[in-house]
User: Fold these one by one.
Assistant:
Number 1:
Amino acid sequence: MTLYVVSLFLPYTIDFEAAGVRRGRYAPDGIHAPLDDKIEGRLAELRRHRRPKSLSMTPGATTDHEKIFKPFYASQSHADEPHVPGPNEVRVESWGLSRKFNQPRSKAVVPPEPSILSRQDKNEATNEPILRNVDGQESESDPDDAGSPRVLLSDVDWVVKAAEQGNGGLRNAINAAVKAGILQDKVWVGTLGMPTDSLKEHTRTSIAERLEEEFESLTVFVSDSEFEGHYSHFCRTVLWPAFHYQMQEEPRHKEYDDHSWRQYVKVNEAFANTLAQRWKPGDRIWVHDYHLLLLPTMLRQRLPDAEIGFFMHTAFPSSEVFRCLTTREALLEGLLGADLIGFQTEEYCHHFLQTCSRLLRLEVSAEGVHLPDHLIPVKPFPIGIDSPSLNVLRQSPEVREWITKIRDRYAGKHLIVARDRLDVAGGIKQKLLAYETFLRRYPKWRDSVVLIQVASSMSELPDLEAQVSKIAMRINSVYSTLTHQPLVLLKQDISFAQFLALMSVAEIFMVTSLREGMNLTGHEFIQCQDGLVGPQKYGSLILSEFTGSASILSGHQLLVNPWDYQQCAEVIDQALELSPEEKQKNWQFLIDRMTQHTATSWCDSYLKALSDAYNAQASQDPALVSSLSIDSLKDKYERSRRRLFILEDQGTLDFYASPKDTTPALEEHKLDAIRSLLSDPKNVVYITSSRTPKQLELSMKDVSGVGLIAENGCFLREPGKAEWETLLDESNTRDWRWGIRKVMQYFQERTDGSLVEERRFSLTFWYKDALDQELAVRQASDLADQINGSRGTEPIRAVLTEGAVTVEPTNVTKASTAEVAFQRMCSSGDNSNGNGNSNGNDIVNGDKNSLSQTTPDFLLVAGGSRDDESLFRWANKLSQEGKVPNVTTITVGTHATAAATLLENNTTVTDVLTVLTNTTPAAAN
Ligand SMILES: O=P(O)(O)OC[C@H]1O[C@H](O[C@H]2O[C@H](CO)[C@@H](O)[C@H](O)[C@H]2O)[C@H](O)[C@@H](O)[C@@H]1O
Ligand SMILES: O=c1ccn([C@@H]2O[C@H](COP(=O)(O)OP(=O)(O)O)[C@@H](O)[C@H]2O)c(=O)[nH]1
């Protein structure tokens, strides 16, 4: 049984550099990418030939910093110092992050020009661009390529190396889970993250084979232009900004969007096709992140029985932002093929659910998305770091060497460190403005504080980059002295070893992201401050409240609103002023919280929840719920000595009535069926309902001896009794009733024909009789969604049933009241059924059968709507725990259910009851 871990980038890629090899961010000896000895040896050999590359520095930065970082700098190009390709090198653009010089050339235009569609010849039949080779013949290459030097890369040597791009947090988590023995058989699925059009077919094949055999990796090949449109454009300039609350017009263009959307679809399809060819029954598929939002449904279409999970690493925006995306419905629908959808935080789950409710008009609840035939759970799984591996890495000689260097260089200084993407959401601009405010407002620190800001990727937005440079220049020119410079801005990533050293030495780590899925670097900073390597500083984490991390570190003293520069400045000062004891207390708080969310526990809890969701879905599938065998039910009925019936009225015995209905009594033949049941002293019957006690009594007319459970469990009337018991007290509704009434009235005023009904413990918005049903359904789902989303700590929930939204207390349900009735029945020692009839089997004290005579040995639960599911689960539990030997749960209608059986061929619950009490042989099922 294989787990396919699917993300856009494989942890490995290919290097065609014959004379030297660069080490990327995800260095082979780092936490990631365990390479085998053969490859490692080869890399070591090649590394010796590595050339140091220059570094892009802050305007105004001193050469000291350059001296410190330059020799170890990752081999990326300098914008002002272009690399000139050698005769055997082909200059290429990499996908999005940094330039690379040793890879096959990209065939794509980055970003695509508006004229991309018109400029290309099109195949009239397929509407696809016709690509021509250098000789002008149709080929798989791009016309832009004409005239460029072409290298037959199949003849060039290649090595496998750790990829620079991709999700480090995910890779670490999967590797940690493998080490912990949670994952035995896993296969990475992804692209190489480099242009592959110009590779010969046999080169691709041998790369794919090598990666599969030696690196547990399944390669997905897509054309360069598809990848470019998908990643550089749709992912990076449409989805990423939107998911981080930046709706940008520039550099977008309608044509870009349409074109790149098609490429986004195609890349998702390529993943689906590759996986569909490989998947075997029992294999599991775990899809990751915003690059592959369409994949779950594409997979479901190809593999209806597969176990498919999806986890979103980035933030998910509010529905108000998401709805701006032109492809919003398709993106949401793309996810709904998954068995489980995970997000980093509760907040993102809520946003997603609300978006599904508002844009797709789906029924949602705190549990997930309710599709007609199943529930897709939507849950938070905050990712964490792999501390044991980090600790190994921190103790490497390279990190220790760097710690010494940085400590010496910054002796006597207060070091603030940060590493973020140079994009809008990364918040570098806001951080610099806050830092400038800090230097202005707190002059006493000016000569001793240094902020080292690493920008971990090249900016995709030149304007932003220019603004950041300008602010940096201003800070350094205003606040530098002959011997001190307060800001170092490295507009390029540093090696991970350098970063670990910086985090070990720093006094403060500052994250001011305007929005961020999680932010694991903050966690790593906390870990690096424990004194395992370098000083035990218990340094302070200043953290934006708009990160996922803030939600698991809530209550932390140094959370900031990155837009509030004054507050950020104050918090920097506050952090610098903390006493050692306060620092240690804060640090302890953070490390305690963090250790509840580790990389391994993330993986483990997600995969367990995925199995549960998959199994639950299989059991909920109406196609798999067996139809009721009336013969076998009758057989059990006849063999039992004490029977309990819990029957729902609305939607099961009766139709759904609105308060406007004037004939609430059950039809006579239905009442007769209940009377017949009650005429047998072995039978105890409860009718459950969302109706009020009064309405329920009216609907049961003069049936004596029937037990009643009204208002979804808030009221109980035991069989044979005239008085009602309330299972809640009035104070339960006092706090929320007024506010909920107002919200309901708002919706009622905007939905013609709807009404609000007040009950003692609940409020119902009835839209069954609304004039415009389409609008009413939308309003109802919005209302339920708003209430469930903003109920805070109130013990209430909004339940959407056919024609109504009921807001009711959560501390009582039909099931909890049925349990009260059941327990009383078991412990009363009374074997009468409330109808003046006594069970024929007298109880003899001490007789081993006495228990079975008061405790039911037969339980039948019949329901029809979603709020009856709690009753089914309760009954199933009694059965599993062996408390009741014969349990039958029956659902009416086709929907996701925990019930074991359903009724077929227009059979009604009344028909079933009639057969049971009829002495004639049961009808054939
Ligand atoms: O650069 P991309 O290919 O667009 O990918 C986006 C980022 O993905 C990863 O970050 C996301 O996952 C992290 C771990 O779950 C989470 O902490 C972060 O907030 C998410 O954005 C990756 O680690 C980043 O380097 C990528 O930029
Ligand atoms: O060379 C590297 C760079 C990053 N990471 C890990 O990748 C994860 C995510 O890094 P990223 O820069 O995306 O930071 P985040 O957005 O999660 O803070 C972190 O746990 C890092 O330890 C790593 O192991 N090696």
Number 2:
Amino acid sequence: MSTHWPRRRMHHVFAPDGRAVIAAMDAGITKGVAPGLERGRAAVKRVVDGGVDAILATIGLARAAADELGGTGLILALDSEIPSAGYGVEQAVRWGADALELKVFPGNPEVTKMGELRELCAEADRWGMPVMAEPIPVGFKALEAHTLANIAHGARVSAEAGADFVKAQYTGTPEEYREVVEGCLVPVLALGGPMKPTPLHALQMAHDAIEAGASGIVYGRNIVEAERPDRMVAALVEIVHGGASVDVAAKHLNVPL
Ligand SMILES: O=C(CO)COP(=O)(O)O
């Protein structure tokens, strides 16, 4: 856990064990009425019912679903907005957010957003507001760039820029992903990405990330597009916080309606 003074807010995201299950629900800013998020307030209620530690959401969803969210952690997503120094920090404070999130694209020949991340971290630090960076090597579509080395690099440069924790793509074996975690300086959480072939694959990735030393997971589509997002969250909680095996956690997914 962070040793500097935003750590009270960090405790709203990370449980006492230092780990977090976070539902990424910010897709609406680019996709509009996105799958699983059509009824925004109900979607938030489902993940809260499942025991999620925090959600990642835009200001619009956070405001609309404030009552459903209750005291659950809130990471305010700044992406897809026009980034400028300190953009959004004051709003995050006013809305009681526990952290801010910015996506960056290390290695992108045109826009890396690393400068914005440094400025945001400096401004957020003035307010005691933690920042979660999401470094995607080159860009979401540049799959060939999403190598272990590039992911480890992206995580490290994000920490060097001042991020308090980092959301990084899971790749390789737990031993390999450990390079990302141990090289990063700050806690790393595994990013979900596109829907896995089955829910068990999503659970397995969470299990492997934890084995690699990750501090938790940030899953979007694999939670909100699940048949029962509440049960998917409950299963992930059992793995991330309870140390359960995939088989044991999967029992949550089989409970009759
Ligand atoms: O993380 C996201 C946006 O920040 C979206 O999450 P997924 O990639 O897990 O759907």
Number 3:
Amino acid sequence: MSAAEVADHYNNVRQAGIQDRKESRIFFMRNMNNWIKSQLINDAMKLVNENGVKSPVVLDIACGKGGDLRKWDITGAKHVVMADVADVSIQQAEERYKTMHKYPHDIFGAQFIVADCTKENLDDKIEIKEPFDLVSCQFAMHYSFVDEDSARTFLKNAVGKLKLGGVFIGTLPDADRIVWAVRNGTEGKFANDVCKITYEKVDELSEGNVPLFGAKFHFSLDEQVNCPEFLAYFSLVKHLLEEHDMELLFVHNFAEAITNWLVPGRRLLESMKGLETFPNRNLSGKTDEEYLEAKAKIDSLGDNVPKFVGTLSKSEWEAICMYLVFGFRKKKTTEKNLESEAPEIKKVTPVPLNEDTDKTAEKNEERIEEKEENPSHC
Ligand SMILES: C[S@@+](CC[C@H](N)C(=O)[O-])C[C@H]1O[C@@H](n2cnc3c(N)ncnc32)[C@H](O)[C@@H]1O
């Protein structure tokens, strides 16, 4: 699978209309993914602010159609470089940027670059001379793990121009979790109502045989045609990034990240419609098994409490648990690295609805208009 084929795939992904997205079986999961990115960027900005930077220079590497442009606006970015191998996606990102309400006044500067970040030197194309304060790579880095050279080039492009103390954040499939799922499935396949994961070479799945690079799998969500992806073991990602003086700040499976962000990010999660109300007459999952946790939560609620919870169907939750979030920082000194802990998969936590709004919600969250036209996972 060459980067050109990846580009071809993403260039041809149809832009779903608002109505299509609302009717999608994974409507809430997509919104949840989008909320996770918002929370991650929010946390990264706190670290960037600690460096004394209020208006960061940002690189959004493998930015797709620019689904995070609004988030960059909210961070108060000074300049954002958006790079992707898919030219049509970059064109759409640039068009979106131009329709943003403040354009061309009072909005961050931006550069849109078409580049295969596994082969080309991005630095040759970047116009701004300042180093980056923040780099974001959402749902994309693993494509570069097709082979070692590609992964190394991609990571160099990602963090090579990051300033000392600068932050690198991202999301990617959790290789351990995926291998676990396909090993426990049938003939290298894991499937539920919303996602299907197939590991291509089943004989590689025996203990110790999954290669570090080129471990190809197919991940299809909501029956969308997918393009092949590659496992990126987090310990390997960490190792490769350490060669660029990057130190690990955190890594969490999505389940763990959601639990951590539920209190500070609850208001935003509700406004972004990241949870489905249970019970309701038009649930996206069609069997009782999809909502056993939510049902148990409802049954445990005392009297005089509204009998509604916010939840995700079991299948969406299983799919979301296939991903992790991470944050690294370029070392300022020779501080000792923080060690990553093995991510533990928690159960879906249904959230009682109609309670007082969380007071600690970030003021930025109120400003997000949830009209995102391209929520991830794309
Ligand atoms: C799942 S999409 C994520 C898009 C965006 N980051 C988001 O969160 O919505 C993966 C993106 O990675 C891009 N990509 C894959 N391989 C790439 C490469 N070699 N160089 C640059 N971009 C690449 C694809 O074109 C696609 O836009």
Number 4:
Amino acid sequence: MLPVNEAEAIILNEAQPMGVSDTEIVDLWEAVGRVVAVPVTSRLDFPHWDNSAMDGYAVRYADVSQCSAENPAILDIIEEIPAGYAPQMAIAPRQAARILTGSMMPSGADTVVMQENTRTEGSQVYILTAPSQLGAFVRRQGEYYQAGAPLLDRGTLLSAPEIAVLAAAQCVQVSVFSQVRVAIISTGSELVSPDRPLQPGQIVDSNQYALAALIEQAGGVPLMLGIVPDNPQAIREAIAEATQIADIILSSGGVSVGDYDYVDSVLADLGAKVHFHQVAIKPGKPLTFATFSQSMQPEGRSVLYFGLPGNPVSALVTAWRFVVPALKKRSGLATGWQPKWAIARSRQPLKSDGRRETYLWGQLIPTAQESEFELATGSHSSGNLINLARTNALAVLPVGETQVKLGERVKVLYF
Ligand SMILES: Nc1nc2c(c(=O)[nH]1)N[C@H]1C(S)=C(S)[C@@H](COP(=O)(O)OP(=O)(O)OC[C@H]3O[C@@H](n4cnc5c(N)ncnc54)[C@H](O)[C@@H]3O)O[C@H]1N2
Ligand code: MOO
Ligand SMILES: [Mg+2]
């Protein structure tokens, strides 16, 4: 059986990032969660002009550098500069302007004295403390960013901080990679959608919803293709349709050794390259990974096919472990697409048969010292999805390791 890290290497090698032909322009307010496709520069310096970092007085350093409370510098206030106002007058020797935080510096002035270090009398200001240096409390034009320099690189994920940067730079439209489209197919003649009454022997198709939610959270667009019965022709049609509309295809069920497990044979029929169909992972051993190369994909990329096992926990665990990193890499992210790992102390003893890399679900709990792992209570059967609720992490026991004792460290995959 293929070790997990080898399966991961095969998948990530096939998950080639989006390229120049997969880009679109979106408005800034629609750009959150998207990935920068064309590096962004701005024509504006940041700050846009010299401005004050304090409420106080704009002065000439030479006038105030020697002053003190006993020997104040006395300056004429010639103008008041509130925020949003362009100064009209130049500051000459022994003059100052009243200035407020963020306001534009007047010409002639080079330093700001904070209000707390001054006293005013009529139209004069007494500077009681010499500024620490020339330029004190002045935010210089271009100090943080100079027009034309790279602002955001290709592959940057746009979240609140990056959106703030783009807004400040007046980039109201941004070129981003298209979102990865992920077709989701549930195979199984026993399945009914959650809105249908359940007949004896039927099972609710929870995988379609679980996987769609996961794809959406990972930044992809789920295309819910519904339930397909265990019938080779129906499965073939569904997969063939999916290859025309999706970058990644997920099916669940029908990949084990049962009489009605048709996914692998249909993939072979459709000319897919099947890279593997079993991985030494628990849960999730019957996992098929294939690629379609004769597709509508630009730049020679292939459509990735994941035949996930039908058991609800197996489907979700294998999607977390293998599908999400592949989707994120495919989406064009330059960094941060890899699985996230932590080391945590286990609050319970953990057990495995040691034969497959074993994933136990629970919660990663950050503490001020060391993170801790709280195992979900109840059965860790791959059919029990009920205790998956409120979990955010999987503790991993490698092949050959049969236990982690209470309080020992364990490697954790977290989301
Ligand atoms: N003789 C063997 N039997 C099984 C093996 C094996 O190695 N030898 N592997 C077991 C393991 S491990 C798993 S996992 C399952 C995987 O089976 P399939 O991928 O073929 O899935 P199905 O047989 O179609 O279904 C399994 C189970 O999951 C339920 N299911 C399926 N789809 C959904 C869905 N969309 N939503 C909710 N639940 C779903 C299905 O009803 C079954 O209960 O095979 C073992 N057997
Ligand atoms: O490994 Mo299966 O995926 O346990 O239930
Ligand atoms: Mg089966």
